[in-house]
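Researcher: We're teaching a course module on how sequence relates to structure. For the next exercise, students receive a sequence and then see the predicted structure as tokens, so they can try to spot secondary structure elements on their own. Here is the exercise chain.
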Amino acid sequence: MNEIRTWAEFWEKEKDSLYLQSLKTFINAQDPRKTYPPRDKIFNAFKLTPLEEVKVVIIGQDPYHQPGQAMGLAFSVPSTMTLPPSLRNIFIEMASDIGGPVRTDGDLTYLAKQGVFLINTILTVERGRPLSHNIDEYKTLIYKVIETLNNQPQPIVFIL
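Model: And here is the predicted structure for the students to work with:
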């Protein structure tokens, strides 16, 4: 049984693993001017949604690949950005399902703080090149993250 109850415990357990060391090397080798999200936001989902508070997991593919869009939360863009088509479609479906207006603010930080873990299967991307960082290390990391989430005591809904 998985005894991990916080993201700090998760990172402590994984910190010396070969895949994570390789991932750190990969990320550090990328040009920060051409890689999104900014380095301080790559792990935003973990910072904003404590493991013990996760209620819903929404999994995306990889970060938005245009300047200023990616913020370390799947499907989220800063409030000042035009909504990408994928996020606009999500908002249209939400309004259709639960009523109310279609949102125009793409910053999903409010959801992350309410227990919605917004994670991409790939956490970084090169400008203008979707799936450019589709590496095995991210696959291993996300597998371990999902395994940890699946072993939590609270019920969690997964939206893929």
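Model: If you want an answer key for the exercise: The mean pLDDT is 96. Strands lie at 35-36, 56-60, 116-120, 125-126, 157-159.
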